[in-house]
Predict the structure of Methyltransferase like 7A.
Amino acid sequence: MALTIFILRLAVCILAFPMYLLDFLGLWNWICKKSLPYFLARFTVMYNEQMASKKQELFSNLQEFAGPSGKLSLLELGCGTGPNFKFYPPGCRVTCIDPNPNFEKFLIKSIAENRHLQFERFLVAAGEDLHQVADDSMDVVVCTLVLCSVKNQERILQEVCRVLRPGGAFYFMEHVAAKPSTWNYFWQQVLNPVWYLLFDGCNLTRESWKALEWARFSKLKLQHLQAPLSWELLRPHIYGYAVK
């Protein structure tokens, strides 16, 4: 099986040679950063349509974590184009972070379409370094389809715990590796190297639930599901929340 995966990976990489050449020349990262927001603006519409019921279920109890003022202070990591905004409760104070500044104009459009929220600020930063966010300052931190592409999951979760107030919650919805010995897992293994380059560091084969289980949360509610998505490679999912 390992030999078969290696041969198929090699064939796929040969077909993707122009992309690897652009990466070698130092051009691909710029192209990817510029084009990815346009792709995700379309993809997230489809994703929200197919995952609407699960997102509504996931975010249904957000308001329970509001502070004494009754207003929810929320930090979204890897906010992208802002596809989660419509699921947040009215009056929610939202701070957004993304390492790609090219998402900002899409984010502004989403903010204009979600007047029920109070937008605080957009920070260009990686989730591994949230130094611009104070300790114990957030009621809730959210990330969806983010842990697949970060460089250091453990470090991000440490930062999440730092910025959450005691009793605050971390909400997540992530695509993950399929079960071993399935065809989906096989093709994830074959396509992952090219997928990683094509989609700006996204990994098909991450077992992100392990990082969440190892993190220092007092409570973890995590579920696995086969998401009703058109893209079969992305169907294995986890979702839930963890309490500091």
